[in-house]
Amino acid sequence: xxxxxTPEQAELRRTARQLARQLGPRTVADLDDGKRSxxxxxxxxxxxxxxxxxxxxxGAPLASGVEAAIIADALGEAVADVAFAGPVLxxxxxxxxxxxxxxxAVVGFSPDLIDAAVVSGPATTTPVYAIDCATESLEAAYxxxxxxxxxxxxxVQVDGARDxxxxxxxxxxxxxxxxxxxxxxxxxxxxxxxLDSWATLGLALTSADLIGITRGxxxxxxxxxxxxxxxxxxxxxxxxxxxxxxxxxxxMEGAFSIALQASWAVDDLGPDEARxxxxxxxxxxxxxxxxxxxTAVQVHGGMGNTxxxxxxxxxxxxxxxxxxxxxxxxxxxxxxxxxLGAADGPS
Amino acid sequence: MDLRDSPAEAGFRARFRAWLAENNPGLPxxxxxxxxxxxxxxxxxxxxxAGFFGLSWPSRFxxxxxxxxxDVILDxxxxxxxxxxxxxxxxxxxxxxxxxxxxxxxxxLPGLISGRERWCQGFSEPDAGSDLAALRTTATLDGDEYxxxxxxxxxxxxxxxxxxxxxxxxxxxVPKHKGLSAFAVPMRQPGIEQRPLRMINGITxxxxxxxxxxxxxxxxxxxGEPGEGWRVAMTIVSHEREPGExxxxxxxxxxxxxxEQAVRADPDAFRNDQRDAVAWAYVQAEMLRLHVCRxxxxxxxxxxxxxxxxxxxxxxxxxxxxxxxxxxxxxGSRAVVDAGDVALKVYLYSRAQSVMGGTSxxxxxxxxxxxLGLPAA
Lengths: 347, 377
What we know:
The structure holds 2 protein chains of 2 kinds.
Chain A: H1 7-23, H2 34-46, H3 65-77, H4 85-96, E1 105-109, E2 128-131, E3 140-147, E4 150-157, E5 171-174, E6 181-182, H5 192-227, E7 229-230, E8 233-234, H6 239-268, H7 271-299, H8 311-323, H9 328-340
Chain B: H1 7-23, H2 34-49, H3 70-81, H4 90-99, H5 102-114, E1 119-122, E2 138-142, E3 145-153, E4 163-169, E5 180-186, E6 192-196, E7 208-218, E8 222-223, H6 229-240, H7 243-246, H8 248-264, H9 272-298, H10 308-331, H11 334-337, H12 342-350, H13 360-371
Parallel strand pairs in B: 1-4
Antiparallel strand pairs in B: 2-3, 3-7, 4-5, 5-8, 6-7
Helix pairs in contact in B: 1-3, 3-8, 3-9, 4-6, 6-10, 8-9, 8-10, 9-10, 10-12, 10-13
């Protein structure tokens, strides 16, 4: 039992943080700098990070959930405007289905953004949401088609306009009526256990993203509290401000600890235990990030409520990361069902 | 990172689980019942004699030289079996190990760890709570002994203690942090008066006041050097704030397990918000279990006596108070119509967690100035 990074994981953490800080946006205006975001996307692709969950040759992925979460954390910390979790989650489904990987693919989600969309007919009948698409390539969104006791993959074309609260990742709504196309080379039917393990990866990556967001926004806000002066002294001198920031720091540490298990569970625990680990992590990380981001807005005062202050970029990213695969309320509802025997009520 | 048990850890877990199945004393909840403290000594010596206590401490003092994460296994198995938590005295071991002479370590650590000698901690005073360095208890050299006068408060289990880890002023002529020294004071002697305190949940055996009026301690029982008392105290309180040192993970996990069982027996008898409170208490308890696992893993790199304990203390406080609130929520009217209700007592006791071992406000001051680097107020 050892919760520490291996030397390789520690190195990956350093590298990923460095890259994300270097190429991520420092200001709201940077979000419009297409040259920078293109360099960031290329760097992420060249590092091989989008292929972490590709088949390593024996059916197992090239890298574990721990490595994927380390990168998600680093990208969240820098509010990096680059597709990562979207393509990685699509690759995870493709590998489990034995399909040929498609780097332009993401997963199409149900309107609550919690589950992969399930489609029974020849075309979609409700909107499907493609989350975290790369901006460059033409994309396909995977959906699930019932097949016996399991599911196979189909895809729909992503052509909706970019939308969503998060300014660093795209959500593209695909209206109902999109025709399904076959996904080539599928050799396996996806089981319930496959989808549970896949959802655990989703919970682990969104939790890691939330931890990164929490750390990033806290660092930024602590630095601001040391600079900004009122009554002739830095506002970080005041206990009222100090205590808000201290609480956020504690939440960040607790979130980091609980999410380590979720990222490890993706490949090392059975589907039920793994999903439970993902749920507790997500519930904690969602609340921690929300609190830290709201604290950051508060400590930045009036400026924190303006579009040009980067704090809302963190808060907005946290809102998507929280909702994606279910927010804290959803996780508690699922824990009520699995641990307390509560009936499966409406979501 | 690998959270699986190593073969050695799995073997230890199996041995401990088997022992626990035969030896769980079934004590009542520690924070809610005086009977717990009456029988806690038996539990300590039973755990120790079976080889399941002091796992990471040196074998020279009765420990087992195991990596610190073995305590995570201990806590997990204690909680799963519904057994009492391990005794909370790691912080005293850390204080003595870090500051005392070899002679003091050899004299006192084996009895402390085995439970053959019982200890209490005399730090706080009525006028020195958060401002600990303002303490006024004096220890005055008289031949080869110090004579003690003063009033200590919040001294847990002082009535059953053989020894007191006492912080006293030995030099009134220097600044307040520099005039303090630490001692191992024998408790069974004239010149010591015990006054128990009744807590808001009714328990009387945990906290007490101790009045020293001419009690004596051999000069050789000083822990650390003269004037080193503040540093000794800071080492102790930094570890007293760590759930990994206290073993409280087992306490919270056990409480959550019992709440889950109560709801699972008839889920529809509870409102959604009551079930949510229990689910959230489970999330919080899991956070602390994993946080302790991380902290004890990090000890493989180095043992840190620094301000990180304040973060752990706040996290632990939030867990205890979340669990206490969930117990109250699940109990509903039962906790109000019956003053002896366990949930009521657990809830009321949980309010002390944000005060004992340094208030939450003090922890936040420490985190803000020493971890975040914000300017002192």
